[in-house]
Amino acid sequence: MTSHHVAEEPIKKVAIFGGTHGNELTGVFLVKHWLENGTEIQRTGLEVKPIITNPRAVKKCTRYIDCDLNRVFDLENLGKKISEDLPYEVRRAQEINLLFGPKNSEDSYDIIFDLHNTTSNMGCTLILEDSRNDFLIQMFHYIKTSLAPLPCYVYLIEHPSLKYATTRSIAKYPVGIEVGPQPHGVLRADILNQMRKMIKHALDFIHDFNEGKEFPPCAIEVYKIMEKVDYPRNESGEIAAIIHPNLQDQDWKPLHPGDPVFLTLDGKTIPLGGDCTVYPVFVNEAAYYEKKEAFAKTTKLTLNAKSIRSSSH
Q: Which residues hold Zn(2+) (predicted)?
């Protein structure tokens, strides 16, 4: 009997990025630890390389120096002529692309795990960039199952205009890991422990896959971005209302038309418009004030993956 599975190349090179945003300390702390003692991230036959991606921002404990490193990995920036006038993060992106890419090439790393914290109440979140990727859907299913009963959500950022050029996008399989709530510049043991477990399960999955284990067809629930919602603003562009208490900390929970979303200082409630139920994420994220994003609306859907096994077996 022949099995209908997708044969994938074995995974050889994995990188773990910490400090893409220099004030998101869980990834910084874990990567620094693994650079000194990487025993827990080593797996037979696999090269796993931890790296601090934005060392200057990490040193200053700030999100970035000149611009957001997690937004500049497009081919235009990566192809710019190197000069001192370039923003620090663009120069750094070019260095990272040389080390772990080049982007869209055969030589690029197989998988990059990019470790982030959010101030939003998002718990353990995996970020998926491609809804048709059987390998990543299988990996995310494995991580979710291994973490249970602790919930783990999948945020799908596939969108014609809202998808951005992430640091991890130079890998064949980019994986964003986002754990919160945690204030910037702060470490929390519970959040650190959750992120550590997510990486452990991910590496175990890769190891099992490389050893020839076949993963049967599976399905996962994902939250796909629809649109970003800005705060209400006054004529001079300043924020005129804040996240309503009913919405605060309610990431991933259904939000219905008419539900309170914002509150003005004179007590006026601004409800959700539209005619469909949405699932808010990155609610009141500190780093997104500058990006004019109060939260993102998502819709819930199910992704299916075919059975996979390594082509070397």
A: 21, 24, 116
